[in-house]
Amino acid sequence: MLSKKTKYGLKALTYLASIDTKEPVQISEIAKHENISQKFLESILLTLRRNGFLGSKKGKGGGYYLIKKPEEIQMTAVMRVLEGPIAMVPCVSLNFYEKCDDCPDENTCAVNRLMLQVRDGALEVYRNNTLADLIS
Amino acid sequence: MLSKKTKYGLKALTYLASIDTKEPVQISEIAKHENISQKFLESILLTLRRNGFLGSKKGKGGGYYLIKKPEEIQMTAVMRVLEGPIAMVPCVSLNFYEKCDDCPDENTCAVNRLMLQVRDGALEVYRNNTLADLIS
DNA sequence: GTTAAAATCTATAAAAACGATAGGGTAAAC
DNA sequence: GTTTACCCTATCGTTTTTATAGATTTTAAC
Asked: Among A3, A29, B40, B136, which residue has the least CB neighbours within 10 Å?
């Protein structure tokens, strides 16, 4: 299940991309337009900024804005920052690999075999979609 | 993230399939072989039985056994029973559809558009894999 | 047959982890 | 000095996972 954090983050990003301006947009405006709890959105935008997707400006006329062009923002990156691993089990994760403590051998593990394919499928989708693709 | 319930359920199913006998297998044997909490596994096997994947026999010499052939058990069915919806958001789910209350229009929703593709990718994998495919 | 053992079933609940939200205060820009 | 982003913390609710305790059914031994 997709977390609301990711859902809201994606919506905020697409909203900023659709605005099509470099001017900062206030949190309150995004929250209102996308029906998101403002406080919650606040923390989400913050992590997006810390991870290089957004820039921010304080004070009057401040807000958040996209740093890169929508075409340059891949969904793989967004998903990893907001949702975490793309894989459903750590033992098939590229960026968050971890060995299962209960599994003696990954090569013969059925869960591993299945989830590897699922991961590849998801990865292909995320690689083929940029922020620009989602708003067109 | 895949729940342990699903993970354990898959492991139990593949173990039963690999045994390749119609004889009932005790919960304790499966639990020990797959490093699973026996009591937890107990409830998982129960739901697998209630959903037509397993049969059971009580008393001495009892246990669980596969009802169908491994080739006839599709991962779509297993995943839906153990993990629930395959889609990451209800608004793109085939079997568990639900409208988002915050989203005014699904057709223009970026989350919807992206997660639709992810669902299709996962679905294809689950449809192409039976229990037999996972143990070969 | 009676009994005892072996196993599945049932229900509950506790503990842990996680998700989502709210509050209040600080710092920077204008 | 007003407006806005920033930061920290606490809380509430839900889900997941595991644990506890017993009930029920079947088989097998005697």
From this structure: B136
